[in-house]
Structures are given as C-alpha cells and as structure tokens.
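The material for today's practical consists of a large collection of protein records. Read left to right, the backbone structure tokens trace the chain's path through space. An example says more than a description, so a record of this kind follows:
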Amino acid sequence: MVLLLLADSHCHLDSFKNPEEIMEKATNLGVSHVLTNATNPANLAPNLLLSQSIKGVKCALGVHPVDLLRLSNEEIEASFDWIESNISRAAAIGEIGLDFKHANAEQRVLQETVFRRFIELALDNNLGVCIHARYAETKCLDILKELNAKKVQMHWFTNSKKTSQRAVELGFKISCGPIILHDDDSALVVKDIPLGNLMLETDAPVPFKGKESDPSWIPSVCKKVAELKQVSAEKVAYITTRNFTGLFGG
C-alpha cells in the first residue's frame, strides 16, 4: 500500500502522555507533518521541545484567547517576551485569536489588544498565524485584513459558508478536521472551500463521538474531503500538504 503524504495542521501534542508514540502511529499512516500549538505559558516550552525532538513536528507559539483571561498582566507580558525570545525556532504564532463566547466587554478589549500584538509580531518575523475565532469570526477577519496579514490559517473555521468564503477571498487558509465526519453542515462548508485554501487538522486531543482524536485520524479527514469534492484522496493529500509547507515550511 502506498501511503499518502499528509499533514495535521493543528493539534496539541503536548497534551498527550506519549507524544512520540502518537507521532509514530501517525507517521506509519503517512502523516509526515504536524504543527503543535501552544496555548498558555505552561506549555510554550514543552511544545517547542517537541518540535526540536520529534521528526516532522513543528510548533506554533502563542496564547489562546480563553487562556489569556486567566492570566495576570505580568504573566501575559512574560509570555510575550518568552515567545519573542524564541521566535526564531517557531514555525508560526499560535494559537491566538478572539473568543467572545464567555468574555465580557473588558475581556474582549484585552483579547483584541493581545491579538493585535501577536499579529504584529508575526508580521515582523514573516511568520504565519494560527487563528482561533469563536463568536468573533467577523471581528477576527476584520483585524487580519486591517493589519494586512497574509500568512493566515483559520483553524476549524467551518461553521459558516459566509465567513469561510470571506476568508477565502482574503487569501487565507482554512483547516478542517474530524467534525466533517459527523456534522453535515460543516461538511457542506468544506465542500465549497477551494482545495488551494484548505488544510487538514485534528485539534487533537479534542474528542469526537467520545473518542480522543490524534494525528492518525488525518487519513480519514482526507478521505472525507475527497468524497465531498469528488476528487482523489491523492489530490487532496498533495494540495493540502503543499498548503501546509507553504505556510509553515517543509
């Protein structure tokens, strides 16, 4: 059997007790590229270490907008300084963004302020950004457009045809994950996203149908995208992996 060359463009390898075994299982199924994302001060260094110690793993350094709300100003500044100091070893800035679901007005202002700082840092270093947007999709796109960000991954951005198409018009990449295996609405959104703008992800270890996901699920996501678009899995694998390496490096 010839394995497809695949990439998991968004996961959190540091959340696994055995990331080396997880990667070995995924690699045996053809998943040769993985981007692991930091989300808070505690897992910045662990994610960077994984990218330096496991073949095929790259890391994005950032602070998740929900985690941000649990940090003091001193912790936010320390995190930003650490990321800035280690940015030459990162493949992207992430996971960053806006999440207004449980944020009050003051917290939304804080999220936006930090979001803008991270985007500027990425632009200054010619790095891509991995974006989390929940209940703030339009606001995220507005800020990215305003700051002229070009190297953008909209992570799990498959809830709305309208916002996904706007992201496509802005030239951004959109990553889709195992949700399309179970949710028809998300699958239909992905069906309309051009392959040239699409990447595959798991957001592992996020569970689906009661089972913890991991990067070895990527072949199933690839197969589903191929079915939706009525093209070969080989074509989906080639283009989505090319999109990954174009944004995050080979």
The two ends are 24 Å apart (CA to CA). The chain has one domain: 6-248. The chain has ten helices and ten strands.
